Q: What sequence folds into this?
């Protein structure tokens, strides 16, 4: 059980976050909640990126006298590349969220509501 | 492997100029608009230089790190034709913006516009599958802001819808990329393409479906195109022209770069590795897009919404063309992409001029336009006839090639011919209805529309180009054929040009 948790909890957790986020985006009619849902999807993706670079027994990917990256011909260090990718993904997610919030503020100023259905009715 | 590092300017200059536009904006607003014109003019002539001096195919290698170890730009025939197309449409729309963008925050509008075009050019030229994600987000974020620009409040709803769908789409794309990365440990398109058969088949299929779902949002394929009508109708007309003329080009390019170069399995007709032929999947999505787009356009009474639905349907036709998988099919796809983005951008610009003179967007408002402005009416007619594929106009050659390619493929692609012809008939019906209103009915008022020089230049240039392509199809045909070769022959056309020493598996 502990083994299973150690190996899979982050992977299943990231997938669950994406699922929860999608559920929130699809079922809510409030624009602010949709933005929160998008953020949860982003968190799930970022967790997934970090997870694929890592396993429970991995060491840091920096070569020093005491930190062997290769043991018995197997690389045991974590993969450094996805960890640099995740920085990009986090920054992009931040930018999208900021823009979405700015648009939401504008929508509230022009329509006086954040409910998607009411906005649609007013446009008719 | 040929390198030509100067071409990094293609991506560098628009991004640099975009972020220095606020500085020019301090001096004068007019200067900020002219900077976009100058930058995109530079891009356009650089593209023509690459084309006419036959420098392509070549790589741009960053910091002397040879691919697959470093990041590279790869500009082959397909990228060349699309760079010329995107920078030409961008240049024309920026000339139009000299006249049209005069309310609100003009300086930041110019910034976002330049960032969008620069991001699209980066998207088309990059050779790294994660950089595609970054450029997708650059174009994405700038286009959400562009779509929300303008005095009308319906723009905000459209922009928000686009934002939500597009960010979920790019997340799915990122998931697909990462699944491939876990299998192969590389992000370089050429290396992935050469080693794609080493992956687990089931995981590859799953990754492929995620990639298709993510990219179909930008490429406007059903069922991921729910944002198209609202966003196009809400945005100001130059932005609608930009989204349909430039944004969808980038989406289609990446979709088929991934499917045909990365996932492609060479043969008479390109199919994909994995448990499922993703090209067939895209063919089904494309056919559904055509049928739904055309039928929705048919019942619209709002001309702008009609153009938006027609844009969807045309992208479906492009996707069908590429998904046939033969050289002729890819040729038809590239050709149709060029024709569509020129014609549709022009029609949105014409609508922008009409609306600015206080005439509505409703189909009844088009009545008697011929008596008010023969110039705009003729240009609109040329665009409409090209889209529905009449001989002597650009669209004829691409639809002809599309039908020809489906006949050669045979099998259930015979069904595709039926769809293309059906699309043409439905398109003819709703476009000719507008054109008929324009020519026949007497207008209620006979105020002449006087088009000033700055919006007239792009409209004239686009209509001359459409007729020129119709009479001399070899203008686009030659390079489209090279592009088709690059797409269908994945090792010789792409991989070996980037990494000459790699062995395909």
A:
């Amino acid at each position: 059980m502990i083994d299973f948790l150690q190996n899979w909890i982050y992977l299943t957790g990231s997938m669950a976050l994406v699922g929860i986020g999608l559920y929130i985006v699809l079922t809510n009619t409030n624009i602010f909640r949709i933005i929160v849902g998008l953020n949860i999807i982003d968190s799930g993706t970022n967790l997934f990126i970090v997870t694929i670079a890592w396993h429970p027994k991995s060491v840091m990917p920096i070569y020093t006298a005491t930190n062997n990256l290769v043991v018995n011909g197997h690389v045991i260090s974590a993969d450094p590349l996805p960890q640099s990718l995740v920085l990009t993904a986090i920054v992009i997610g931040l930018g999208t969220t900021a823009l979405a919030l700015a648009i939401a503020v504008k929508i509230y100023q022009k329509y006086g509501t954040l409910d998607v259905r009411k906005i649609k009715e007013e446009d008719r | 492997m040929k390198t030509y590092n100067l071409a990094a300017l293609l991506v560098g200059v628009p991004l640099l100029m975009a972020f220095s536009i606020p500085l020019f904006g301090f001096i004068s607003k007019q200067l900020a608009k002219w900077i976009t014109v100058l930058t995109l003019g530079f891009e356009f002539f650089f593209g023509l230089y690459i084309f006419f001096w036959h420098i392509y195919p070549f790589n741009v290698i960053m910091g002397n790190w040879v691919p697959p170890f470093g990041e590279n730009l790869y500009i082959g025939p397909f990228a060349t034709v699309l760079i010329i197309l995107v920078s030409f449409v961008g240049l024309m729309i920026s000339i139009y913006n000299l006249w049209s963008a005069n309310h609100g925050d003009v300086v930041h509008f110019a910034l976002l516009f330049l960032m969008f075009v620069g991001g699209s050019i980066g998207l088309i030229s990059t050779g790294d599958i994660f950089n595609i994600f970054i450029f997708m987000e650059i174009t994405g974020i700038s286009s959400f802001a562009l779509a929300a620009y303008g005095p009308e409040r319906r723009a905000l709803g459209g922009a928000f819808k686009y934002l939500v769908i597009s960010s979920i789409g790019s997340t799915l794309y990122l998931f697909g990329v990462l699944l491939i990365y876990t299998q192969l440990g590389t992000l370089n398109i050429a290396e992935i393409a050469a080693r794609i058969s080493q992956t687990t088949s089931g995981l590859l299929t799953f990754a492929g479906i995620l990639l298709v779902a993510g990219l179909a949002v930008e490429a406007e394929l059903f069922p991921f195109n729910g944002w198209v009508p609202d966003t196009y109708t809400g945005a100001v007309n130059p932005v609608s022209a930009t989204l349909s003329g430039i944004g969808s080009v980038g989406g289609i390019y990446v979709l088929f770069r991934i499917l045909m170069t990365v996932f492609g399995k060479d043969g008479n007709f390109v199919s994909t590795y994995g448990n499922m032929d993703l090209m067939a999947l895209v063919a089904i999505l494309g056919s559904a897009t055509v049928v739904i787009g055309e039928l929705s356009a048919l019942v619209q009474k709002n001309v702008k919404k009609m153009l938006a639905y027609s844009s969807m349907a045309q992208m479906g036709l492009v996707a069908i063309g590429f998904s046939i998988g033969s050289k002729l099919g890819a040729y038809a796809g590239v050709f149709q992409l060029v024709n569509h983005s020129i014609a549709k951008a022009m029609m949105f610009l014409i609508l922008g001029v009409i609306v600015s003179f206080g005439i509505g967007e409703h189909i009844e408002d088009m009545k008697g336009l011929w008596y008010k402005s023969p110039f705009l009416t003729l240009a609109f007619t040329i665009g409409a006839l090209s889209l529905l594929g009449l001989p002597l106009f650009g669209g004829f050659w691409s639809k002809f090639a599309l039908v020809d390619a489906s006949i050669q493929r045979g099998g259930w692609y015979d069904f595709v011919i039926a769809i293309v012809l059906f699309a043409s008939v439905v398109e003819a019906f709703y476009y000719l209805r507008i054109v008929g209103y324009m020519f026949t009915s007497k207008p209620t008022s006979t105020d002449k529309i006087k088009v000033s020089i700055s919006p007239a230049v792009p409209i004239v240039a686009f209509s001359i180009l459409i007729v020129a392509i119709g009479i001399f199809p070899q203008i686009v045909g030659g390079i489209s054929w090279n592009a088709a070769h690059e797409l269908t022959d994945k090792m010789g056309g792409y991989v070996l040009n980037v990494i000459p020493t790699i062995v395909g598996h």
Summary: The radius of gyration of chain B is 22 Å. The interface with chain A takes residues 130, 134, 137, 140-141, 144-145, 148, 153-154, 156-157, 159-160, 163-164, 167-168, 171, 174-175, 178, 181-182, 185, 187 of chain B (CB under 8 Å).
